Amino acid sequence: MSTRLVVVHPDPTVLAEAAAARLLTRILDVQSVRSPVHVVLTGGTVGIKTLAAVAGSPLRAAVDWSVVHLWWGDERFLPAGDADRNETQARDALLEDLVASSGLPAGNIHAVPARGDGPGEAATAEDAATAYAAELAGYAAGDATTPSFDVLLLGMGPDGHVASLFPEHPALGAAGAVVPVHDSPKPPPDRVSLTFATIGHAREVWVVAAGSEKAAQAAAALADGPVTQVPAVRAVGHDRTLWLLDAAAAAGRD
Ligand SMILES: O=C1O[C@H](COP(=O)(O)O)[C@@H](O)[C@H](O)[C@H]1O
């Protein structure tokens, strides 16, 4: 049975530091029993702040990064290196440093293909979704279509979206592992996202969110509101779901 825990931190900086410490400890714990370790990263304010906190943590030296594989829950379908790509922000905050100084193989970074016509790039969000799904399938066991992610991090927007699964959007009900998303209400309009089926296949899902603008939707999700209005309600891990909030984002709860 899946369990849920809500942890509230005083402010976004403490939240990011605590999430980073928790993430590094989770990787270490998993490495004690199996390898490789599969982690899904998120974009967004707290997601990137968490990666910056990992970069500055002494605990990162305890991890064997050579067996850690990094994925994304969603991506903005933009050219490689675009500052708005979740991949670009994660590389700048942490990943380039891990490759340069901590033994993370560049090949363990599994980004969603960028928009373009070069090697490894995709002409459409559909092509990017197909390629990303194939990459995921290559690391899946048995009949699964994706790895059993050890941790899947998700930010949450003020509208309650997670990954690129927005309220009232057809992608909410998408089948398969990965879905191309068009007409996103938050720019850019074209995106690629894991589906809820894939998110639910993760052993642990952690939702990280800060700020008073998130309070109403965090409360609605924790009160099991309708997925069409508050997609974050479907952010549930197979074994465990963690909600890591700052006090402002937690303030809407009873
Ligand atoms: O566009 C996105 O937004 C969400 C949340 O971002 P935030 O800045 O409000 O924290 C993020 O989780 C998602 O990965 C990203 O593509």
TrEMBL record:
Source domain of life: Bacteria
InterPro entries: 6-phosphogluconolactonase_DevB (IPR005900), 6PGL (IPR039104), Glc/Gal-6P_isomerase (IPR006148), NagB/RpiA_transferase-like (IPR037171)
Pathway listed: Carbohydrate degradation; pentose phosphate pathway; D-ribulose 5-phosphate from D-glucose 6-phosphate (oxidative stage): step 2/3
Catalytic activity, reaction form: 6-phospho-D-glucono-1,5-lactone + H2O = 6-phospho-D-gluconate + H(+)
Entry keywords, A to Z: Hydrolase
Glucosamine/galactosamine-6-phosphate isomerase domain: residues covered: 11-243
Catalytic activity, EC: 3.1.1.31
UniProt record similarity statement: Belongs to the glucosamine/galactosamine-6-phosphate isomerase family. 6-phosphogluconolactonase subfamily.
Biological role stated in the UniProt entry: Hydrolysis of 6-phosphogluconolactone to 6-phosphogluconate.
The protein, known as: 6-phosphogluconolactonase
Taxonomic source organism: Isoptericola halotolerans
